[in-house]
Amino acid sequence: MAKNKSQFVCQNCGNTSPQWSGKCDSCNEWNTLVEEHQSSGIGANPGKQLRKGSPVKLVSLAGDLDEAPRIASGIAEFDRATGGGFVQGSALLVGGDPGIGKSTLLMQASAALAKKGHRVVYVSGEEAVAQVRLRARRLGAVEADVGLAAETSVENILATLEASEPPALLILDSIQTLWTELADSAPGTVTQVRNSAQAMIRYAKKSGTCVVLVGHVTKEGQIAGPRVVEHMVDAVMYFEGEGGHHYRILRTVKNRFGPTDEIGVFEMSDAGLREVTNPSELFLGERNASSPGAAVFAGMEGTRPVLVEIQALVVQSTLGTPRRAVVGWDNSRLSMVLAVLEAHCGIRLGDYDVYLNVAGGYRIVEPAADLAVAAALVSSLCGVPLPSDAVYFGEVSLSGATRPVAHSIQRLKEAGKLGFNQATAAKSGKNDSKSTPITVHEIKELAELAARIAALKGAIGADVTETG
Ligand code: TYD
Ligand code: MG
């Protein structure tokens, strides 16, 4: 018998186990274990791979410093997310749900680069060349000189690339369709995806080409997700968006050559993805400022301020355990704000269902949204709309005190630019308000905010003073 033992590999996290089970022990995903052969993979067959090592040239850490050599794509939102453009010799992973627009985005970036005179190769493992060209025509990119191929074999792709000058940019759409003869599992399995990615990353380092790997996020675990190669690449970006909304966010989660908190915002149109240079206008676009329960949060995404509306609905519950439903924010963070409102502001929400939504399908990750969420909740409970020209930002601590957050000047400036006249923020030692065009109400306690909103109604409502 050959020592070709098989093992079961989780297609979600890559954990291995000697026998099949319905649930992965490591990541707790169901139905993700697939049988793969253990002897497969680079280094698994030393006899075949063995060669004499050759010395490498050591370079001193000191000495002339080069910036990472980059090629800007010219698509400003894309370059913002990557930290300035494609880094030569690096590997970039672009993940996202199927159909979100990854191929569209990368075709646009390829065309932009090719138009600048760089050599670009686009290898599609999912679409035929004719299909890719059809898409390119719709995007107005047919003029661009991009080398196209429909190929899935890593060996064939490498042979093609080695036959000529290395391109500046190589797109591999997608890693799940690639397969290499070094591994004998089926395409799309963890072993194949890892080995194929490894081979392409090695090519990137050797040739100086920037290799972009496209990866589908998979829910069912039938094919390996992009997570299994995240640790191998230099930068990881996820392209996200809500089904019903037409805008998309390119979010950087790992970047060895730049910041990770930047986002690029795009809008999907019938002629491809359009850059959104002022996301606040998009997120506040369909705002109805006269209804209770809506508060505008002055947030930050990396170095860029983003204004977004937070909507709350507080209604009397008919259930034993009231509902708490959150879209676009952290569930446990909402529970915390509710607890602070109850404990320190005398606002009892235990008999109410609470729904919280961030407008436009946007997702907030900053704790600075606490104050805006509290304002929306109190506004909905009291049935009193907040001033239409006000923004809110600040963190709330469990003691009921508010905490100042970073970048307040930028937040205030952005609010001023979009026509807001007042802001409620946590009191900080710095005197930020002086240098901005809008009035800043600085508060120390969350209770001050609740009282201020209740006062808008004329008097504190009966609901609010239940606990006395
Ligand atoms: P695609 O880039 O193929 O997604 P992915 O590669 O992430 O699977 O984009 C698919 C969706 O984008 C498709 O549902 C249609 C839409 N789309 C447009 O709305 N306008 C366009 O110009 C293009 C090319 C696609
Ligand atoms: Mg695609």
Protein model, in words:
The chain has 468 residues and is an alpha/beta fold. It has three domains: 6-37; 71-277, Rossmann fold (3-Layer(aba) Sandwich); 282-455, Ribosomal Protein S5, domain 2 (2-Layer Sandwich), CATH 3.30.230. The chain contains eleven helices and 23 strands. A nine-stranded mixed sheet has the order 8-7-9-10-6-11-12-13-14, with helices on both faces. β7, α4 (129-138) and β8 (146-150) form a beta-alpha-beta unit. α8 packs across α11 (446-456) and α9 (370-382) runs parallel beside α11. The model is unreliable at 459-468 (pLDDT under 50). The protein binds thymidine-5'-diphosphate and magnesium ion.
What labels would you give this structure?
single chain, 468 residues, alpha/beta, Ribosomal Protein S5, domain 2, nine-stranded mixed beta sheet, seven-stranded mixed beta sheet, binds thymidine-5'-diphosphate, binds magnesium ion
What's the name of the CATH homologous superfamily of the largest domain?
P-loop containing nucleotide triphosphate hydrolases
Radius of gyration over all CA atoms, rounded: 26 Å
The low-confidence parts are 459-468
Briefly note the CATH topology name of the largest domain.
Rossmann fold
Count of domain modules: 3
Question: Span between N and C termini?
Answer: 80 Å
Structural class: alpha/beta
Rounded mean pLDDT is 86
In the sheet with the most strands, the strands line up as 8-7-9-10-6-11-12-13-14
Specify the biggest β-sheet.
9 strands, mixed
Helix content: 10-25%
The number of E-state strands comes to 23
CATH hierarchy: architecture of the largest domain: 3-Layer(aba) Sandwich
The helix count comes to: 11
Strand content: 25-35%
CATH class of the largest domain: Alpha Beta
